[in-house]
Specification:
The complex is a heterodimer. Chain A is mainly β. Helices cover 0% and strands 57% of the residues of chain A.
């Protein structure tokens, strides 16, 4: 079945770049999403990329998609302490709607 | 402002009790979803509904039940048959357009007394 994998933890220093990686198995994925979850809160959509794109940039966020290797990454430039959170990648199939989530990567930003 | 409201934020259940988690949306979305979140396991789909009066089981439906009598509302009941109900529960909705993401509520944390 479909599967999405992420590493569980990432620690960076304030001001550095963070790169969170994700791999997925469903080759029919249409859209791939990055969500952010702060402690005790719901998921906030950060950005998403359509499967026929290689890259998407939105201010400090850069999403890279390697469709051949089914690898997605989220780069956060100039990481701040307020970026500390859990980051989830998720994929949707051709019809949209149902999402398959990774386990989440907990980003810790040290001053 | 449009959004998804989950209530209560914290809920406690005694052994053998059923409890119901509320999810209301005013986004006019057709589809609604319930997820369970456990540490280190991401989000797992419990039930989803694509239209009023219809719903389907997700990956971990055992011990849960839902109803969808109104477009705005998708309550989740955690029954006594769910042996490990302690978790964070998230409700989401989706407008039905393929390039649009799911929107999430702020979650309900359920604990066993």
């Amino acid at each position: 079945g479909e599967d999405v994998e992420q590493s569980l933890f990432l620690s960076v220093r304030e001001g550095d770049s963070s790169v969170i990686n994700c791999t997925y198995t469903d080759s029919s994925s249409t859209y791939l999403y990055w969500y952010k979850q702060e402690p005790g809160a719901g998921l906030q959509l950060l950005t998403y990329i359509f499967s026929n794109m290689d890259m998407k940039q939105d201010q400090r966020l850069t999403v890279l998609l390697n469709k051949k290797d089914k690898h997605l990454s989220l780069r956060i430039a100039d990481t701040q302490t307020g970026d500390s959170a859990i980051y989830f990648c998720a994929e949707s199939g051709a019809q949209g709607g149902k999402l398959i989530f990774g386990q989440g990567t907990e980003l810790s930003v040290k001053p | 402002d449009g959004g998804i409201t989950q209530s209560p934020k914290y809920l406690f259940r005694k052994e053998g009790q059923n409890v119901t988690l509320s999810c209301e949306q005013n986004l006019n979305h057709d589809a609604m979803y319930w997820y369970r979140q456990d540490p280190g396991q991401g989000l797992r789909l419990i039930y989803y509904s694509q239209i009023v009066n219809d719903f389907q089981k997700g990956d971990i439906a055992e011990g849960y039940s839902v109803s969808r009598e109104k477009k705005e509302s998708f309550p989740l009941t955690v029954t006594s048959a769910q042996k490990n109900p302690t978790a964070f529960y998230l409700c989401a909705s989706w407008p039905g357009t393929v390039n649009q993401p799911q929107h999430f509520g702020d979650g309900t944390r359920l604990s066993i007394l």
